[in-house]
# Entry
Amino acid sequence: MTSPQPADDVPAPDCDEHQPLVRPERISMLLAGSDSEGRQRVDVEAVAQTGSTNVDLMQRVTSLSRPLLLVADRQTAGRGRAGRPWHTTPQDCLTFSLAWRFERPLHALLGLPLAVGVALAEALEVFGVAPQLKWPNDVLRDGAKLAGILIETAADGRRGDATWAVIGIGLNLTVPQGLEQELQRAIGSAPELQKPPRETVLAIITSALVDVLTEFERRGFGAFVKRWEAFHAYAGQAVKIVDNGRIVHEGTAAGVDMIGRFLLDTDAGQIEILAGDLSLRLQD
# Structure
C-alpha cells in the first residue's frame, strides 16, 4: 500500500457548527503526495453535518467525473447494514463515504464489501491497531465492532456496463459514555487515531481504498481472499448463521471463496453462504 505517513505535527482546526473538523485541502495534499502513475485522483469535500454521506453521494454520482470523498463530522441519519441506525458524534467517530466508478457491471462487484474491509484493516495497522474482519462487512477489535461498511450502487447512466459504488464507513475513535449500555453490546474503539490529525488518518485510509479498489477493478475479489482471511475474526470457530432471529446454519467458520461467499463446514459438508440480510454470530 502506497500511502501518506502518520504525522502529529499539524493541529486540528477549531470546530463550530458551521466549520467541519477536517480540512479537505489538507487531505488532498496528502493524497497527492502518495499518488503514483495510473492512480486515480480523488476529490475531497467536508461538511460539519449532513443526513447521510452515502445518500448525498448517491444523489450526485451521475454528475461526477472522478472519485469523491465526502467527510461529515456528524450524520443525523447515518445507516448501517439493513438500514440500522449508526450512532455518531463528531469527537467519537469518523464518518465518510467514497464514490468510486467501476468499469464493471453490478454483478461483477461480488465481494466488494470484503475487499473494502481489507483496505480498512490494512490502513488501521499503520496506526498500531490490530483489527479483525467479520463477514461480510464489519471490522472488529478484540471481538467488538470497531467499524461498519455500507456499500450502495448505481448504474452509470452514460455507460451500461459501468457502475458507481458509494462506500460508506463509520469508524469509532472512542466509546461515548452510556452507549454500550444503551445498545446492550460491546463497542470497539481506536483511540490511537485521535493523536494524528484527522486529515492524516483519512488520507491513509483513502489511499488504501484507492489501491484496493484499483486492484479489485482488474482482478476481482479473488485477489483478496488470502488478505481477508489473514484478518478473519472467527477462523476455525463454531458459528451460526441467523436470519431474522432464526438459526439457519451452524458449523465451523472455514473462510471465504473467490467471490466473497462465507464458507461454513457443517456435518453435511461445506456450504457457501451469500450475504443477503443474514447475520454471522459465534455459537453460545
Notes: The chain is about 25% helix and 30% strand.
